[in-house]
UniProtKB/TrEMBL annotation:
This is 3-isopropylmalate dehydrogenase. Substrate binds at residues 91, 101, 129, 220. Keywords: Amino-acid biosynthesis, Branched-chain amino acid biosynthesis, Cytoplasm, Leucine biosynthesis, Magnesium, Manganese, Metal-binding, NAD, Oxidoreductase. The lineage of its organism: Bacteria, Pseudomonadati, Pseudomonadota, Alphaproteobacteria, Caulobacterales. SUPFAM superfamilies: Isocitrate/Isopropylmalate dehydrogenase-like. NAD(+) binds at residues 71-84, 279-291. GO terms for biological process: L-leucine biosynthetic process. Gene3D superfamilies: Isopropylmalate Dehydrogenase. Belongs to the isocitrate and isopropylmalate dehydrogenases family. LeuB type 1 subfamily. It comes from Phenylobacterium kunshanense. One of its GO terms (cellular component) is cytosol. Coiled coil: none annotated.
Length: 350
């Protein structure tokens, strides 16, 4: 059985995942790795961004780590064959409904944030975003011509009790291993789906997680609090749309896209999907200057959440922290290290 399926993808994807492979070979040499083409690279080879065998391999592995997909090369490809379509199909096929996006600020990088050092130094909270429901998937959705001229566009926000409950459960479980606090963000003041969200989270909390501190926060206020006093959060639970926006705002707190990992989890026992939050960065692809830490920290999450290697995950996290403390910086962090040299710096600390 494959432990970790690597899907390097496009652009800087293969450059950063190559560093994950080096780290894995040093830290966990017994893990069985496998690698497959994905995204544009797969389209070029097989005419599809996600081959059936690749999806089957992803579902059969214990964890999947991807680099990034997409780029201008595939701009003219039909929508359903685009690299990004492969990613949506991979997420749907793996049924990963809970997206974990840490907002992390390593002390040595606090000055790279858009906020004051004291607001972000040591920042460590986790956004849990619902990933497979809500307004990005709800029906009906369409654009129609209006008889009197102009058009009308409709998207639909839909959530069921079951969808809310399973993602809320992930948030509560996570909080228990952290600082034991969940803030649940919705717009129950103006949306029925927000009312249901609050009701389901409150019920689940009462039934099974009364030991966790739960607060409810309106999503717009959450956006304000993220930039005003982000350290108040431990786990921030929210839906697909608000989570998309709030997690991008949180990402900016930490300085560089090149630093942030993510995980997407499904039901317990099924493989998780791990990926840096950045894209394929066509502007720097092929130059060997991309920051591999987001990908390496995604591997750290895979060790923790899918591979039962919490001790190795701790070691890797500490190694990244020490490398940064000693001044290791790629270009996005204001330094001059190459991708491989940043990999070297982490390996040296391991
Ligand atoms: P991007 O994240 O690829 O790049 C945005 C900016 O951040 C660029 O200036 C890039 O050089 C820089 N950057 C990103 N990652 C970096 C790293 N590891 N080290 C140093 N600098 C880094 O986003 P963009 O430009 O909007 O999208 C480029 C392509 O990536 C598009 O085709 C897009 O669809 C795709 N994309 C794919 C994602 C995925 O595979 N999950 C996510 C986001 C975008
Ligand atoms: Mg987004």
């Amino acid at each position: 059985m494959t432990d970790l399926l690597l899907l390097p993808g496009d652009g800087i994807g293969p450059e950063v995942t190559a560093q994950v492979r080096r780290v894995a070979e040093a830290l966990t040499p017994d893990l069985k790795l496998e690698e497959r083409l994905f995204g544009g690279a797969s389209y070029d080879a097989f005419g599809t961004p996600l081959a059936d065998e690749t999806l089957a391999a992803a579902k059969a592995a214990r964890a999947v780590l991807m680099g990034a997909v997409g780029g201008p090369k595939w701009a003219g490809v039909p929508r359903d064959k685009r690299p990004e379509a492969g990613l949506l199909n991979l997420r749907a096929g793996m049924e990963v409904f809970a997206n974990l996006r840490p907002a992390l600020c390593f002390g040595p990088l606090a000055d790279a944030s858009s906020l004051k050092r004291e607001l972000v130094e040591g920042l460590d909270f986790m956004i849990v975003r619902e990933l497979t429901g809500g307004i990005y998937f709800g029906e009906p959705r369409f654009i129609e011509e209006l008889p009197g001229g102009g058009k009308r566009a409709v998207d639909t926000q839909v959530y069921t009790t079951a969808e809310i409950e399973r993602v809320a459960r992930v948030a509560f479980e996570l909080a228990r291993g952290r600082r034991n606090k969940v803030a649940s963000a919705e717009k129950s003041n103006v949306m029925d789906s927000g009312l249901l969200w609050r009701e389901v989270v409150t019920d689940l909390h009462k039934r099974e997680y009364a030991d966790v501190e739960l607060t409810h926060i309106l999503a717009d206020n959450a956006a304000m609090q993220i930039v005003k006093a982000p350290k108040q959060f431990d786990v921030l639970l929210t839906d697909n749309l608000f989570g998309d926006i709030l997690s991008d705002a949180a990402a900016q707190l930490t300085g560089s896209l090149g630093m942030l990992p993510s995980a997407a989890l499904g039901v317990a026992g099924k493989p998780g999907l791990y990926e840096p939050i950045h894209g394929s960065a066509p502007d720097i692809a092929g130059q060997g200057v991309a920051n591999p830490l987001a990908a390496i920290l995604s591997f750290e999450m895979a060790l923790r959440w899918s591979l039962d290697r919490a001790a190795e995950a701790d070691r890797l996290y500490a190694a990244v922290e020490r490398a940064l403390e000693k001044g290791a910086r790629t270009r996005d962090l204001g330094g001059a290290l190459t991708t491989v040299q940043m990999g070297d710096a982490v390996l040296a600390e391991l």
